[in-house]
From TrEMBL:
Alphabetically ordered keywords of this record: Hydrolase, Menaquinone biosynthesis
Catalytic activity: futalosine + H2O = dehypoxanthine futalosine + hypoxanthine
GO molecular function, one term: hydrolase activity
Pfam families: PNP_UDP_1
Pathway(s) where this gene product acts: Quinol/quinone metabolism; menaquinone biosynthesis
Underlying gene: mqnB
Enzyme category, top tier: hydrolase
Residue ranges with Gly residues bias: 46-58
Protein's name according to its UniProt entry: Futalosine hydrolase
The family this protein is said to belong to: Belongs to the PNP/UDP phosphorylase family. Futalosine hydrolase subfamily.
EC number(s) from the headed UniProt entry: 3.2.2.26
Domain Nucleoside phosphorylase residue range list: 68-228
Residue ranges, annotated region (Disordered): 35-58
Signal peptide start-end: none
């Protein structure tokens, strides 16, 4: 399993769910991704049971392995880093069976309160398209591809139940919402949206290119709307991410896409 976060504090928060930690700081550990560093929790194998990361060492077993990477900020870098990690695993003959986009994000109020967890049932590129006189038109409506990825329904349900999280659309944006007007516009276009972040769709695109299922989990650090740094609760969100992954990982490790 590959968990792709944006930045190191998110990566570290996820990895804390496994207990004692051991950070691999070698920037070339992934071989082809300069800014995505594998993070291997002590006592938890990194992509298998060999005791070495799949991207920097030997092969591994098919189950139980977890790599956590800081893939970078924004959908483009997240996609490139995730794709490189997936390709490296394939070349070593030990591909990932699941990709999880994880981190903190903004929550649409009142459904996604600060400090809560959200699990995506849709991963949506919210601003990929064109502005017209009649409003926003998505890339899909323009006929140039998809703006939505759907995680496995059963996995979304299992993970949501495990942590008591709401499930709904998580929007991927290239520009974080900073006004009430934009927050309203996004909710009008995406009425099931619970959260916004900047990487999920990029991670999902990379996973889809490799035929690997994807999941997105977000801990809410701030309301979506006017940019108010005083209202941000980043430490609380990171703590929620750690606590949540402690409950999520057993579900993810026990899930088998081929049983569905």
């Amino acid at each position: 399993m590959l968990v792709a976060t944006a930045v190191s504090v998110e990566r570290d928060a996820v990895a804390r769910a496994f207990g004692a930690l051991s950070l691999e700081s070698d920037e070339t550990a992934l071989g082809v991704v300069g800014r995505a560093h594998p993070f291997r929790p002590s006592g938890t194998t990194a992509h298998g049971g060999s005791g070495a990361t799949a991207h920097g060492g030997s092969g591994a077993t098919a189950h139980g392995g977890i790599d956590v990477i800081a893939a970078g900020v924004g959908p483009a870098l997240a996609a490139a880093s995730t794709a490189s990690a997936l390709t490296a695993a394939v070349l070593q003959g030990d591909p990932y069976g699941l990709v999880v986009s994880a981190g903190i994000g903004g929550g649409f109020q009142p459904e996604a309160s600060v400090g809560s967890l959200v699990v995506a049932d849709e991963i949506v590129a919210a601003d990929l398209g064109a502005e017209t006189d009649d409003g926003f038109v998505s890339v899909t409506e323009l006929g140039f591809g998809t703006v939505r990825h759907h995680p496995p329904e059963d996995l979304v349900r299992l993970v949501g139940n495990a942590v008591g999280a709401r499930t709904g659309a998580v929007l991927t944006v290239s520009t974080v919402t900073g006004t009430a007007a934009r927050a309203r516009a996004l909710r009008e276009r995406h009425p099931t949206a619970l959260a916004e972040a900047m990487e999920g769709f990029g991670v999902a695109e990379a996973a889809a290119a490799h035929g690997v299922p994807v999941l997105e989990v977000r801990a809410i650090s701030n309301p979506v709307g006017p940019r108010d740094r005083a209202a941000w609760r980043i430490p609380d969100a990171l703590a929620a991410l750690t606590e949540g992954f402690g409950k999520i990982v057993p579900v993810l490790e026990g899930w088998n896409r081929h049983d569905q």
